[in-house]
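Blinded run. Sample ID left blank on purpose so nobody reads anything into the name before looking at the predicted structure. Input follows.
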Amino acid sequence: MTTIRGELLLRPLRVEDEAPARAAHEELAADGFDFLLAQRREEGAAEETWAEYVARLEDQRHGRRLDPGFVPASFLVAEVDGVLVGRASVRHELNEFLEVWGGHIGYGVRPAYRRRGHATAILRGCLALCADLGIDRALVTCDVGNAPSAAVIERCGGVLDPDLPVAEGTPQVAAKRRFWVPTA
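Blinded prediction complete.
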């Protein structure tokens, strides 16, 4: 668990987080953001209970039982005063897809909690975790039209990669801007 700014706590998802996490998922679905990453299960996979889902995330953090195309990753929720205000995913390594689209870090903040510094705090906490994992600079992407996210990344030291042109969108993924951010 990591406390940032004295008030925001980044921690793994817990079984007792089910109701607030599902509420956050529903809120962010309107923005096209998959808070729980639940929709990325392999087609035909059996429905899992909430406890199984939380256990799967823990396995993923340790590189166990990874679905095809997945890498070890830490799924974290951002909590302020007992409220889940956002979440983050820290990928411990990059694969071909993540090198273009996802990067090392993905994060989101619930609409009611935006413009309060939470996104910056979440990204800074994730960068510290990347440093702990031995990642010297993290690749962080954002949708081309997401100026607030680009500003957060730049505020944390992100530099637009001139050697990586904007990743063109596909029907499944929006066009991306890619930034390298120092972790130390």
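Unblinding after everyone has recorded impressions. The domain at 2-182 is CATH 3.40.630.30 (Aminopeptidase).
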